[in-house]
């Protein structure tokens, strides 16, 4: 078995910037995969090409709640991602097959800092 890369949070950035918070509960079809995993992986690669994309954090609770927070330098980056053809197609398919429900929140980040324990 290959070693698993460590999970790290997105580093703090100089504010202001924006956080797009996507919370969802997936259908049984999505949990069985139904193409969800490969589509999510592809979108994760494509969003990195969007000007102003700063990174993404994601978690999934045992109870079924998934939370993804994508960070963008500006609203133009968020709009470019919203309009991206592959993202729009995945959204439509997700509404039809992969999500029981979801909510999207866009927030302006006005303060940001981080911490990392010193090694050694």
From TrEMBL:
GO terms for molecular function: monooxygenase activity. SUPFAM superfamilies: Dimeric alpha+beta barrel. It comes from the Bacteria. InterPro entries: Dimeric_a/b-barrel, Jasmonate_Hydroxylase-like. The keyword Heme does not apply. Keywords: Monooxygenase, Oxidoreductase. This is Antibiotic biosynthesis monooxygenase.
């Amino acid at each position: 078995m290959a070693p698993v890369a460590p999970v790290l949070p997105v580093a703090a950035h100089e504010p202001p910037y924006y956080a797009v918070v996507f919370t969802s509960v997936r259908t049984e079809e999505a949990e069985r995969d139904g193409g969800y995993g490969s589509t999510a992986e592809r979108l994760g690669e494509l969003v990195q090409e969007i000007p102003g994309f700063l990174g993404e954090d994601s978690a999934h609770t045992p109870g079924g709640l998934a939370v993804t927070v994508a960070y963008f330098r500006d609203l133009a980056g968020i709009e470019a991602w919203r309009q991206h053809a592959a993202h729009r197609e995945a959204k439509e398919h997700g509404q039809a097959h992969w999500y029981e429900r979801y909510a999207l929140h866009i927030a302006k980040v006005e303060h940001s800092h981080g911490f990392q324990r010193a090694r050694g």
